[in-house]
Design goal:
about 375 residues; mainly beta; six-stranded mixed sheet; five-stranded antiparallel sheet; about 40% strand; disordered C terminus
Amino acid sequence: MPSFEIPDIPPKAALKHETEGDQTFSTGAVTFTVTNKTNQGLSGRVTIEPQGEAKAEWFSVDGESERDFAAGGTHTFTVRIKTPPTATAGTYSLKVRAVAINDPDNDFAESPVVVFDVAAPPVAAPKKGLPWWIFAAIGGGVAVVAAVVAVIFLWPASGTKVPNVVDLPFVEAEQQLTAAKFTVVQETDPDSDKAPGIVTGQDPAAETKLKDGGQVTLRVAAGAELPNVVGQLFPAAESTLRVSHGFRVERIAGAAGGKAPETVVGQDPMPPAQVARGGTVRLTVDPGVGVPAIAVPTTQQAATSSLQSAGLAPRISGRCEAGTPDQVIAVVPASGTLVAKGSAVDLTIRVSPSTIGCRLRGPIRPDERVVLRPLTP
């Protein structure tokens, strides 16, 4: 099964005439989306496959044709079409192939075929002389001349005004333009800081008049790929997002769940979502549990109850020394230390040197310990 997938796109691309010097070219663009369907990162390459009489030199890809895909990640590729003045008028086609670089012969996916028409270059209309009535108007005086000029230069051009769709979601912009009987071509804007899918520019500009079927090219924000930082400690995760990728980071304290303090346990949005460049990523962290304040010396029962109420596990050992027995004389880690919920906290209990556990050992060193069973509250 191919690692990549190329969803369906509009089956036909619209071309327009562009003049460079005294030569006329047919130009257009079509955008393909390529998705890594696997749960691991892959390197992929896109190639253009001309069909029939189409020529490879007519096509080019914006940006790098070879890219790294995150698990489940998506890239868009814009294919530029530019046919020479010598191209024969007719219908041509192309498709795109996405291959896994580590196995290009066996692991690939192909797009549907996209067709486009190459029309004959427009024939310049012969220049006409001024109509006789303009000369007659000149003879009629300045007022008549002014009226003629107004008719020539102020008469509105034919066609429909292009609506302003900048800052709209692409789907909504496309619906407006299609309803106005225009043809829409999408181009990717990889550098915009607007949210993915938002129109960042249009050509021609709003209020320009076009005939039915005229082409409007929309540049659409691609957003930025979002790394997965779940499982990292918050300082490292914040550095990855803020310093390496330019995102803003918002810290949210979650519930203690047994992870090391400040471990990122949630991320919004989650990859493979695309995010506006400079957008905000919210990270939920496990705050851990603070070791409760235990004033020593105290009873084993009180210390054990305090730790268990905080979600921590008392781990008890004894130390043979003179003084009131069965009292907690040391707590490690110290009160206020942040630890993972469920962590063990060592309680050291004073054991009288006269007890059998101490007597059997002979002379007692001050640091000698005897392991005891914890009390159950």
